[in-house]
Amino acid sequence: xxxxxxxxxxxxxxxxxxxxxxxxxxxxxxxxxxxxxxxxxxxxxxxxxxxxxxxxxxxxxxxxxxxxxxxxxxxxxxxxxxxxxxxxxxxxxxxxxxxxxxxxxxxxxxxxxxxxxxxxxxx
Length: 123
Prior knowledge:
Elements: H1 3-18, H2 22-32, E1 33-41, E2 44-47, H3 49-60, E3 68-72, E4 82-91, E5 96-106, E6 112-119
Parallel strand pairs: 1-6
Antiparallel strand pairs: 1-2, 3-4, 4-5, 5-6
C-alpha cells in the first residue's frame, strides 16, 4: 500500500461528499468505497455504501448554512492499510463550520472498507 492509493480513495470520497447530483455521488462512492463499508460517523455506526450515501445526502448536503463543501486539509498519512487525514467542512464563503480527522482502512484493491470520523477538536 502507499499514500498515493489512499489519497486517491480519500479524494474520490470527498468529491462524492461535495457532489450535488445523486447519480454522480453514487458513482464516485462506488469507486471509493467497498459495498460492505463500515462507517463510524457522528450519528453512529452504519454499514454499506447506502449508509454513507444517506449520511452525505441527509447531513452533509442539507446544512442550514446552504451550500457547503468538504476539503481535505492535510496529506493522507498511510503507514500501511490504515490511513488518516484532516478535513474541514466549510460554507460557500470558505468559513470553517467544522473540522476533524478521519481514519480509514483501505483494501489492497484501493477501496475504503472502514471510515472512523473524528469531528471537532480534542480538548
